[in-house]
Design goal:
This protein is α+β, with helices and mostly antiparallel strands. The protein has three domains: 154 residues, no CATH class; 109 residues, MgtE N-terminal fold (Alpha Horseshoe); 115 residues, Roll (CBS-domain). Helix content is 33%, strand content 22%. It is built from 17 helices and 20 strands. Strands 2, 3, 4, 5 and 8 form a five-stranded antiparallel sheet that branches. The longest helix is centred in the middle third of the chain and has 11 residues. It is elongated.
Length: 420
């Protein structure tokens, strides 16, 4: 098993001459190089000698494996240390800071940085987010150099924040973040500092749809926080990609003087939907419903219904069923996606639909909606206009749960995105 060494073993400790007798300075930090390597190579150390921070390349350093650094060169370069692009100062940039664990979708706190010699090269191999390294740093306890592997988070699964690495000239990679669920990314944003959260939002902004999905998952406080730095045009562009019900909820929370300019910046079709939702109280079925759903006439075949799904702009995660409506735009059945896929394409969609259809009305309060969905075991329920009985929207069980659960329920039940 490779010995894994703690960064704290070397910090503020002396570096000796190559004979191992005289102390020539004190170790301030270790320097690694960011790039394509999963484990960044260590390129040298910052050494303080007579009040100056100097750089000593790794080829001139010995004794790392023994935990006692020695200078193996003939002379020290007396030029003051200046960080070069892509260089990472392990203590200054990483230690006791937030890092993103991209595998688990969590923020971790780097209470210790772990290094090891791999095939003759010293590398940053992991981070220990546990409490033991924190106590070791604070109390100065010597706890040995070998750690159990399960205590360490592999550095290959970690991404630092650019704000911590001012010369890195890198950005949090979108392709890595995009593997996480939007709710996980939102949790990261909420647990991060404002500056760190902006970095994450900027990274996912390469995909406007993902950016909108993440924004929908943020709590209201953070949504407003990140909208403050956006112009009305930029805010409208973001809200355009959000579900109409979520966009309406957010507009309701925006400062009064910004509401109309942002609303008028939405495309006409989106603006109509949002204005309709804004006409209802937020705590009613009308305020919660989503006006985007898939419906087909009662003459439609199964093939027609599947094609309607395929060509719909409704996000896949919001598609729970296809509603069959009569000539008066009243729903007479709902066909689950599974029942449509299993049926013959030539059959009528209504023949595989559930025809004993429950519904709610826009002015019902949310508890009444919850009772209806619970009593009939519904994952989605149509919302019918009270005057004409036409279908104007749908409510899904996940939207209802999110509304009924108390604010901050993730934190209350320990579902935090920060690991220590």
């Amino acid at each position: 098993m490779t010995d894994i060494l703690h960064l704290s073993t070397f910090l503020r400790r002396p570096i000796f001459d190559q004979d191992g007798g005289d102390r020539i300075g004190r170790v301030q930090d270790l320097v690694a190089r960011l790039g394509d390597d999963a484990h960044p190579p260590i390129v040298g150390a910052v050494i303080r000698i007579e009040g100056r921070n100097l750089f000593v390349p790794i080829r001139k350093i010995g004794g790392l494996a023994q935990g006692r650094m020695t200078f193996q060169g003939k002379r020290v370069d007396l030029r003051r240390f200046e960080r070069r692009p892509g260089e990472l100062l392990l203590a200054e940039d990483l230690l006791a800071r937030h890092l993103i664990n991209l595998v688990r979708g969590r923020l971790i706190i780097a209470n210790e940085i772990e290094i090891a010699e791999v095939e003759g090269r010293w590398e940053v191999v992991g981070v220990d987010p546990g409490r033991r390294p924190f106590l070791r740093r604070v109390l100065g306890a010597r706890m040995g150099r070998r750690l159990q592997a399960e205590a360490i988070v592999d550095f290959a699964s970690i991404e630092p924040f650019v704000s911590h690495v001012p010369s890195a000239r890198l950005r949090i990679p979108y392709r890595k973040l995009s593997r996480l669920h939007p709710a996980q990314i939102a949790d990261l944003v909420e647990q991060a500092s404002h500056e760190e959260g902006e970095e994450i939002i900027e990274a996912v902004g390469l995909d406007r749809e993902l950016e909108a999905d993440v924004f929908e998952e943020l709590d209201t406080e953070h949504q407003l926080e990140f909208l403050q730095s956006r112009s009305d045009v930029e805010a409208a562009r973001l809200l355009t990609r959000m579900e109409p019900d979520n966009a309406a909820d957010l507009i309701n929370e925006i400062d009064q003087e910004r509401r109309l300019p942002i609303l008028e910046g939405l495309p006409s079709h989106q603006q109509i939907k949002v204005r309709q939702l804004l006409s209802y109280n937020a705590d009613t079925a009308g305020g919660l419903m989503n006006t985007d759903f898939v419906s087909v006439p009662d003459t439609a075949s199964v093939a027609d219904a599947i094609e309607a799904i395929r060509t719909s702009n409704v996000p896949a995660e919001s598609l729970h069923a296809v509603f069959v409506i009569d000539a008066d735009a009243k729903p007479i059945g709902s066909a689950s996606l599974g029942s449509l896929v299993k049926a013959r394409e030539t059959e009528l969609a209504i023949s595989v639909a559930r025809t004993q259809l429950s519904h709610v009305h826009p002015h019902w309060d949310l508890h009444r909606v919850a009772r209806k969905m619970s009593d009939f075991n519904l994952t989605v329920v149509p919302v019918l206009d009270e005057e004409h009985g036409v279908m104007i929207g749908v409510i899904t069980v996940d939207d209802l749960l999110e509304e009924l659960l108390p604010q901050g329920w993730r934190k209350e039940f320990g579902m935090t995105a920060v690991e220590e």
